[in-house]
Amino acid sequence: MIELLNVRKNIGRKEILKGVNLTVEKKEVMVIVGPSGSGKSTLLRCVNRLTEITSGDIRINKVSIKDLDPISLRRIVGMVFQSPVMFEGSVRENITYGLRFSENDINTWETAEELAREVGIEHLLEEDANKLSGGEQQRVAIARTLALKPEILLLDEPTASLDPESAKKIENLVLNLVRSRELTVLWVTHDAEQAKRVGDRVAVLKDGRIVAIEEPKKIVWGEIYVR
Ligand SMILES: Nc1ncnc2c1ncn2[C@@H]1O[C@H](COP(=O)(O)OP(=O)(O)OP(=O)(O)O)[C@@H](O)[C@H]1O
């Protein structure tokens, strides 16, 4: 479903990704781990063209992302970040934010209710989104992403800014959504225990190169965060 073929990414004179090859199967959760600065976020950002690759190719369902316009691409590929960004307004407005650009005739009222229920914030729909807790805001961000019915989800440390209890709840929520919506996932985390819980496979990125792709139980975890 997602193929990275010899992907290189330079920023200025620095080579951040040095020929990354990675295939993610449909409905697979591929976790990406690696030391700070190894290029994990950059890799995710390349997949939905928040940043352009320097060479190589990225294909989604066999189509090069260069041949998809960024808007169509971002309908297929949703992204959730470490720190959720709330727009001014209610939770309802935040959840349906992306739907205003939709070509289809969608009942945004009902859609917001359904999505809010799905992520457990139906009681907060009319609240000011900026006044919610971090965990609640992450639920809003997830609902807003799901509103566009993506097939692929990019998760850039979605639980890293939360307290352990909220983090576990969001992790479970995301896993349930991934299964119920049959999503294909690239999930960046620095938490080895989380990687073991959520990953079908784990890709280890070191200094811009993938050095291992294995099932979690086969990964030598002790060596990953050593530079
Ligand atoms: N816009 C940019 N300009 C210059 N350098 C950048 C830019 N974005 C990323 N980098 C550099 O690219 C390298 C990889 O960054 P990236 O954020 O992808 O790493 P990461 O593995 O996600 O790190 P972390 O785990 O700390 O989030 C780092 O050395 C970073 O400083």
From TrEMBL:
UniProt xrefs under SMART domains: AAA
Record-annotated ABC transporter domain positions: 2-226
SUPFAM superfamilies: P-loop containing nucleoside triphosphate hydrolases (SSF52540)
A GO MF term: ATP binding
Pfam families associated with the record: ABC_tran
Metal-binding keyword on record: no
Signal peptide positions (record): none
InterPro entries linked: AAA+_ATPase, ABC_transporter-like_ATP-bd, ABC_transporter-like_CS, P-loop_NTPase, PstB-like
Keyword entries, A-Z: ATP-binding, Nucleotide-binding, Transport
Superkingdom, natural source: Archaea
The protein, known as: Phosphate ABC transporter ATP-binding protein
Annotated source species: Geoglobus acetivorans
Lineage of producing organism: Archaea, Methanobacteriati, Methanobacteriota, Archaeoglobi, Archaeoglobales
